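Students often ask what a holo structure prediction actually looks like on paper. The answer is less mysterious than it sounds. You provide the chain, you provide the ligand, and the output is a string of discrete structure tokens encoding the 3D arrangement of the protein together with zinc ion.
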Amino acid sequence: MPRKQADLIVENASELATPEGGQKPLVGKQMLALRIIKDAAVAVRNGRIVAVNKTATLRSAFKASETIDAKGKTIVPGFVDPHTHLVFAGSREDEFTMRIKGASYMEIHRKGGGILKTVAETRRASEAELARGCRKTLDIMLEHGTTTLEAKSGYGLTVEDETKCLRVLRLVNETHPVSIVPTFLGAHAIPPEYEEHPSDYVKLVVEKMIPKVTRSKLAEFCDVFCERGVFNIKQSRHILHAGKKYGLKPKIHADELTAFGGAELAAEVGAVSAEHLLYASDKGLKMIAERGVIAVLLPAASFALMIERFADAKKMIETGVPVALGTDFNPSCWIENHQLVVALACRQMKMTPAEALTASTINAAHAIGKAGEIGSLEPGKKADVLILDAPNHNFLGYRFGTNLVSKVIKDGKTVVDLQ
Ligand SMILES: [Zn+2]
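The corresponding structure tokens follow.
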């Protein structure tokens, strides 16, 4: 039989490790069950994966115009980051020092710092300035293996500034190799001008922002920061229902700082994902497991905020909650390296490298509605592939604070080549 033509073959890898996709995110022991191939190869054609197998077997069926020798290296799917606040202006290193001295998140927030400082800076910034910041971040993320991410608005908090941020995301998505899935997070904080009458802000989100955002097709998801002192359960429910009415799938920042009933609300509204969940109740976890709501866990946020507590990933996995991992990239958690998230997940939340890889790829892809296209190395999927300078996937999290990426292939093209 003549060999079929591929555009690219990556071959001779010491290991290929990938979760295998399906209609639903992986839960429980499925999260550990990676497909592992030793002496592995991947063939790519027209930006998609056409074969994954042992090098000798794949070579007997395919030839290619370009080959990459991955001897001694490991092939895994590109990381999918399901939770970032990519678009903002300025920085908050001053608060970092305050936190070291013991100030809490809410104390900083009440002093006009935190989100509100970034809101003021983001409102002043032009689309071009914001786009420049996003591209800089994405360059670094891509170099560390992130090939797709979700990005939220939420530092504009006016109709004009929220749509400005979402337009920036659309522009950057069209002009940068990293794929961006946009989320509307107008309900990120109560802006200072509505402090005395927050229900009017909720009204603005529901009656003006959501219709405008969906009319211009600027977002796929609607998120809300459901937390004591931010948006309460009733307001969060109202906003998420309004988003759903306009076709925005719900996500929710839930039970991050207090046990607030966010997980229960996520189950009730049928959210695609619930994020943070540090204080989620047992009942809430059971409810989201039953509804298949994905827990997007963000260990770098605990690390950045200097809080001792991390989400109880082990309990979630035992309860049957599908777990995904994200960076929570934002001005108070400035992390571009997803591999460091894996290291924190392994050490602080006792996830194994296999579970963390599943949580960073296929389950993360489910959390942003893209699991049919990305998140695993399987024929038909987009060729978003990492070649790691490591003999096997257990090096993920084991070596940390450094970049294991040797090459990044996005849509079948080599976009990062660090040798
Ligand atoms: Zn967040």
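The CA atoms of residues 20 and 256 lie 30 Å apart.
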